[in-house]
Amino acid sequence: MASFIINYNNINYATEGVDKMLFEQHKLKVFAFVGPSGTGKSYRAQMVANERNINYIIDDGLLIKDNEVIAGSSAKKAATKIETVKHALFSKPEQQAEIKKIIRKYKPESILILGTSDNMVQKIAENLGFPKIIETIYIDQVATEEEMQTARRIRQTEGKHVIPVPTFAIKKDFSGYLLDPLQIFKSKGRDEKPYISEKSIIRPTFSYLGNFTISDNVFRQIIEYLAVRTDGIHKIVKVRTINDDSIIRIYIEIVVNYNCGNIVNTLNLFREKCKKEIENLTAMNVDYIDVTAKGIYIPQNNE
């Protein structure tokens, strides 16, 4: 029986050459947006892309199309800053393969790569097999020194990062991070169409402020608070929380009031209320909540 030895290094080089040839065939134009970390690149990325009719952006490990993440995972989710850099460079073959597959599918005419230096954006383009960058825009061309200093101060004192997509589009992927929506409206001139963009502000776990954790007792306190303010529920008997990689699963046992009406409706309404409030207060995704009625409270005649 014949045996075959596969040289993965050669295959990688060959694949990269084929990818580059394919991208050049559909005339992919590659632009770069460069500026030091924390100076406001992600904040202004959509504005820069919009002015050049670019619908695709690569930022911190994400491939974004028209305010929607279509491939990749954010480097801001990495556990350390070193891992963040590696992830942003698309250094792993599986990262590269995912982005290349989507690029082949959508065949964009142009794409904007964000990076902290010329070397970084060039390395990203090389790792993804893109053609050479045809234009580089620098942050000081679109932002004043005062604006950049403000952005640095916010990054250093509050640990805030910006992702150029709406909050609803990334909330699931950033469970456990504190997210805030940010909407921007800018006029481009008297006869020009106004520029409207929604972005998300996140505070990663490795931010300059340090790590944060949320105790299981916090979830119980939120649930008990809601129970007191929910008609039909007498008291909480038990709360059990499973916190698995920032995905929350909760089991609740309650005692309902005899006059609560339909018990099933009471449980469903309380479950929905708990899920919404916990997600709003903790920025964590609740995978599911089981609510079980363990008893019915019947008032005595003298009550």
What does this structure look like?
There is one protein chain. By secondary structure, the protein is α/β, with parallel strands linked by helices. The protein contains ten helices and twelve strands. It has two domains: 8-203, no CATH class; 216-297, 2-Layer Sandwich (Alpha-Beta Plaits), CATH 3.30.70. Helix 9 (216-228) crosses helix 10 (263-282). The longest helix is centred in the last third of the chain and has 20 residues, at 263-282. The radius of gyration is 25 Å and the shape is elongated.
One letter per element, helices H and strands E, the order comes to: HEHEEEHHEHEHHEHEEHEEHE
Low-pLDDT residue spans:
1-15, 166-170, 178-189, 194-201, 205-209
| Rg calculated over all Cα atoms | 25 Å
Largest sheet strand order = 4-3-2-5-1-6
**How many structural units, i.e. domains?**
2
How many strands, what sense, and barrel or not for the largest sheet?
Answer: 6 strands, mixed
> How many extended strands?
12
Through-space gap between termini: 88 Å
Strand residue percentage: 25-35%
Tertiary shape: elongated
| Helix fraction bin | 25-40%
Overall pLDDT confidence: 77
Structural class label: alpha/beta
